[in-house]
Write a structure and sequence with these properties.
With 313 residues, the chain is an all-alpha fold. It has 11 helices and no strands. The chain starts with a helix and ends with a helix. The relative contact order is 0.17.
Length: 313
């Protein structure tokens, strides 16, 4: 079962690998170092905001989907999750728009901020649908959504750089287009799934109590991961940030892809096993998960270390 699910998610992670390496190789040739640095700072901010405000919903869906399905109240669970998303997204839109309109910031950063705000809101909506399908173990559709989102966003971003006057804003605009197009394609399916569901504030409270720790952990992890880029930009300049971000991405991105691939596959299986077969079966699967991570990731990390200099060159 594990191998079948790993292979099912393979298209999504081949797309991630292509964009992960291709993004550095292509964007560092299309953008000047300062432009790439500005793009890196914008992307880091987008990830931080999304993880801080919306990841608790994704985590709650991943954990509670199987139980809600077994109890026959899945529509209520999803309706409550989407209602919570709407409240957070509305608040973020109002605050973000006010900052972009009234704050004394340069026009290019205002453009990046507006596009980034759109990416956060649309991507968070798309992620709710993807997380629901992943929890339902709909491997093929989940993989297709992830691969389409990744490839469309990247290719559109490159097109914006090549055929418009966009520079660092181009890849961010591409991410927005990818999230909107793939999200619009998936929303009708999700609306049918939550049809008839009732929004229950008590459910939202339970989701928040479970998922808040996940959001906080990821937010602090993101701060630790990208604070150096902002410090480099402040102390040196955005060009230095671009050079640093490109090298960092070459080392970090391949391992992230492998870890996420394994996690994307195993997490819903472990949760479903816990709900349906008990803790012992979940522990057994978790042991298989750990062994699989070591089997895949240790050689990958070793390989990157051995070819670090020619890879960076």
């Amino acid at each position: 079962m594990l191998i079948r699910h790993l292979l099912g998610y393979l298209p999504a992670h081949l797309a991630n690998a292509l964009v992960g390496f291709g993004g550095v190789a292509v964007l560092t040739r299309l953008l000047e170092p300062n432009e790439y640095g500005r793009y890196s700072l914008a992307l880091s901010t987008i990830i931080f905001v999304q993880q801080s405000l919306f990841t608790w919903l994704e985590g709650a869906i991943a954990r509670r989907y199987a139980a809600a399905q077994a109890n026959g109240d899945l529509a209520d669970e999803l309706a409550s999750a989407y209602a919570a998303y709407a409240v957070v997204a509305t608040g973020l839109t109002v605050i973000g728009a006010a900052v972009l309109i009234f704050a004394p910031i340069p026009d290019d950063f205002r453009t990046l901020g507006g596009l980034g705000l759109g990416v956060v809101i649309t991507n968070a909506l798309l992620r709710l649908g993807i997380e629901s399908r992943r929890a339902a173990r709909e491997v093929t559709r989940t993989s297709a959504l992830l691969a389409s989102h990744t490839l469309l966003g990247f290719l559109t971003g490159v097109a914006f750089i090549l055929w418009t006057d966009m520079t660092s804003a181009g890849p961010i605009a591409g991410l927005l287009v990818g999230a909107v197009v793939v999200g619009l394609a998936d929303v009708p399916f999700m609306l049918r799934r939550l049809k008839g569901g009732l929004v229950q504030p008590k459910r939202i409270g339970v989701m928040l109590s479970f998922g808040a720790a996940i959001s906080l952990t990821l937010a602090f992890s993101q701060i630790m991961s990208v604070a150096d880029r902002f410090l480099i930009a402040i102390i040196l300049d955005e060009a230095a940030t671009g050079v640093y971000a490109a090298g960092y991405g070459l080392a970090n991105r391949p391992l992230d892809i492998v870890f996420v691939w394994a996690g994307l596959t195993m997490a819903p299986l472990i949760v479903a096993a816990f709900e349906q077969d008990g803790a012992a079966r979940a522990q057994e699967l978790a042991g298989e998960f750990g062994a699989t991570l070591i089997l895949i990731c240790l050689p990958a990390a070793t390989g990157i270390a051995l070819v670090a200099e020619p890879l960076a060159g």
